[in-house]
Amino acid sequence: MSQQIQPAKVMFDGPVHGRSPLHKYIFTGVVVLLCLWVLVPIYLLAVNTLSSPEDVNAFPKSLFPDLNTDSVSFFLNFAGVGQALWSSVKVATVTMVLSILAGAPAGYALSRFDFTGKSTFRVLVLMTRAFPLPLLALPLAVMYIRIGLDDSILGLALVHTTLALPFAVLITYSLFSGIPIELEEAAWTLGCSRLQAFQKVIFPLVLPGIAASAIFAFVISWNEVFAAAVLTIENRTLPAFLLQSLSFAPLHLKFAGGAVLVLPALIFIFLVRKYLFSMWGIANR
């Protein structure tokens, strides 16, 4: 009996599972490097955004410069920024609506129904992210010109919906899978139809998660730059506008524009982290 128990003890306490001092140091070092990899660019972006234009271009730089909003004011009053911001809001809003209208029913169907090709369909949903957008850009631009969707809010929103739809499907799938089907069956026994059971029982429970999925789709569209740069000219979104302005825009405008792009994404990702962890199989975070 003791010979059977001893190997198990060694397996849990030994270095195989990273509990030796060396593995702890390596693990801690990797975590610190990853945190620095994420936080240092955010710190530099925030500091340069809240510095005066003179401090942004000065060298050497102070580690904690005086806070100044002149760079932000310059960015907001720069020609074309307002229109680009408004275009970004419109494209991201349309993308968010289309992603939920198409993704939530697909997530519900994957969660509740068994049908031929279900596993294949889930793989295909993920495979849509395997094709790089630059590879599809030229034929997409030609097709859009032929059908009149080039340089339009709807045309760009359709491309962004294609990018956001796999995440919408997977997030809503995890949401519906987390609700016991017995709740729906109980509603059916009380006289509700499937639609009424969904409306009265399921929908209130998944509404926060669907809102989180919608916000995530909004963020994907908000930060997308390649399709916006290729498919739009007059209706450029803010990322495409900043990319177009790289060659002549002053440095403090670039930092302020980067902060405007990053800040909503950071806030939204923080708010929906619970549902993202659920989608990736990490619970209770």
TrEMBL record:
CDD domains: TM_PBP2
Residues covered by the ABC transmembrane type-1 domain: 85-272
Alphabetical keyword list: Cell membrane, Membrane, Transmembrane, Transmembrane helix, Transport
Gene Ontology terms: cellular component: plasma membrane
PROSITE patterns xrefs: ABC_TM1
TM helices/strands, residue ranges: 25-46, 91-111, 123-147, 153-176, 201-222, 251-272
Protein name, entry field: Trehalose transport system permease protein SugB
Organism field: Granulosicoccus antarcticus IMCC3135
Phylogenetic placement of the source organism: Bacteria, Pseudomonadati, Pseudomonadota, Gammaproteobacteria, Chromatiales
